[in-house]
């Protein structure tokens, strides 16, 4: 009778150990799934970072274009100043000749 009790105890222990082992496997697979999800999120964050870098370079290009436009505006303004001086010179010549004649 005692031997049956011992045998029953070890059978139950084996079942419990198997159940614990399967729970361990299930937890391990769940952790693997979570880790793959973390890897996926990491790649998504990398893509967002690269998109941010691209946007940054686009902003730099826009900034350089703005600087170029600013220099073009300065050139146009200097051309306007030159034209104004020419107009003043023409006006002075006209004034001199109109007073002489």
Task: Explain this structure.
Keywords: Membrane, Transmembrane, Transmembrane helix. This protein has 101 residues and is an all-alpha fold. It has one domain. It is 98% helix and 0% strand. The chain contains one helix and no strands. The chain is rod-shaped, with a radius of gyration of 43 Å. The mean pLDDT is 84.
Give the fraction of residues assigned to helices. Answer: over 70%
Structural class: mainly alpha
Radius of gyration: 43 Å
Assembly form of the protein: single chain
Shape: rod-shaped
How many domain modules?
Answer: 1
**Strand content of the residues, in percent?**
under 5%
Transmembrane segments: 20-44, 64-97
Keywords: Membrane, Transmembrane, Transmembrane helix
Task: Give a short overview.
This protein is mainly α and 101 residues long. Helix content is 98%, strand content 0%.
